[in-house]
Amino acid sequence: MSFIGQSLVLASLFFAAAGAVLGFWGGAKRSLKAWDMARQAAYGFSGTMILANLAMVYALITHDFSVKYVAEVGSLATPPYITVISLWASLNGSILFWGGVLGVYVLGFIWIHGSRHREYMPYTLGMILSVSLFFALLVASVADPFAPMNPVPLDGPGPNPLLANHWLMGVHPPTLYLGYVGMVVPFSMICAALLAGRLDNGWMQPLRTWMIIPWSFLTVGIVLGGWWSYGVLGWGGYWAWDPVENASFHPWLTGTAFIHSAMVYQRRGGLRIWTLVLGMATFLLTLVGTFMTRSGVFNSVHSFTQSAIGPVFLVFIGVVLVFSVLLLALREHTLADDEETSDRTSMMTALLGQRYDVLSREFAILLQNAVFATFTFTVLLGTLYPLIAEAMLDKQVSVREPYFDQWALPLGILLVFLMGVGPALPWGRMSPQRAMKRFGQPALAGVVFAGLVALGGFTGIWTLVTAFLCGFAFVANFGEFWTPVQVLRKKRGNSLGEASAKVYTRARRRIGGHIAHYGVLLAAITIALSKGYKEERDFTLNQGESAEFAGWTVTYHDAKLIDEGFRNSVTVNLTAAHEGGRSIELHPKMNYYPTQREPIFTPDMYTGPVRDLYASVIELPPQGEYVVVRLMDMPYVSWLWLAPFIIVFGTAVAAWPARKKKSSSAAREAVA
Prior knowledge:
Oligomer: single chain
Largest sheet: 6 strands, antiparallel
Number of strands: 10
């Protein structure tokens, strides 16, 4: 199996190298033959890299300990599900999995675009396969998971206990990978536009779509990571500004800014170079995030151990950065046409308020982009500062949660505000009187919603500000759909259903964007209501003893040892009776793994629509005669896990290819 796996990886390395050369040759010489050969090489890379991943899965399932990676993470006692997801349990396997995901993206990209976009596609394939070449080279050298093991052990230690401790670890990492790896496609498409010397709407639209796809996966992956943290680590939180958490947040911020900035270019022809910079920065930040996770430079529950990959990856990041800067500097002038000024001038005049009217949607998006850029910089600075201080000043420092919170709070609130202002403004110009009229109903809705939140006992000033802005933004976004529906009903006499269908058909992309905004607003208000309002107390309970907490009567019964084969679990049995008559059972655990000296404490919780009751074991003597348990009352946390799926649904509606169908003139007028 080692020979088969290494052979497949070497074949993928050959296909990636050949395809990269042929792609650039085909683009430069406009050679259809070279382009066709590049596509065949891309198929070869995808096939061999995907087969290499399947070979490793087979080795894991069959417990082939002659393969070094299986000997490192495999175990005869590990259940099949955890055995399969052990593919990304450790460093070398995760790099192999990265290559497999990249192979899937390459296949999807070629299949979707086929023989179209002949001016851009060869360069794009050349860039994608150049990145693929680097990862294939990693897998073939310093990160070889197929290295033979000698002597061959009879059993292995099993995967990282944190991986085996929750089912979400089978979903969270691959979702993040789909977000991280997919960013290579829009990056390569941007490079192709610069190399080709033109960027038209026929290429910008698929470019924006290929950013939305990995951005959606990244969104879901980030929230699933918060859900995992909430359900496994026992501290009752979902985001701690951990360096590797931040690493996934950086490209999400710049990717979001790109998606909105691209709208300005498509509608108004502005911010073109700025949009390309955002797209390139997003890919670079995914590489930085991968370096943080796999270099061992950060001490984090997410990171892998120190390895030789770190320096190699750092060199690759430097090469990509220099290449991107030079490509922009040398080729950006080729994108400007005779009818518009350069985007560098456009950006400056927009910032001065001379190009875009202050009461316009493009100016709101410009401000939003500035906030996203500031947010990215402050989080990146706080994340990297300990490394910079240690390297330059030879002293160890740490940047903790208060620094990030003091920036995240005002910047996040400002983004929510702009999320409401933008949709309420038109493209172009609007009079102040009309703008005030448009803002009237959303502002009233914000006041009403903030009042309801205050009546619920959430009276913090920032909480109420967030509630007001969420209500304001919700109605402003809804007005983008409701107003044209009303126009159609008034002009044509259509029923509500007919008018809604016509508006949806004509403005589906815009409506999908607003649905995605609803998911973000749900996340914002959930965070505002849950952060700082949880109630937490520790209780020492003897068997049969009860404690009163947040309207619950919690009783400790006993603790039982359960042998699960790959681990031993000590389960604490609690019952909780609510004053309203509801009764539930809670079973927080202490999980013991053969490779772990200390137990991993796993909380249990009752999830309700309004509040969660969260129980985590703090201390339990061997005989279980008493337990020290931490109880938490967590308001509205459960709604946070719904937010990313609303976002993804909205982005799917916006990105789904439209049918070529003519709409009525009334519908076009209504949504204009």
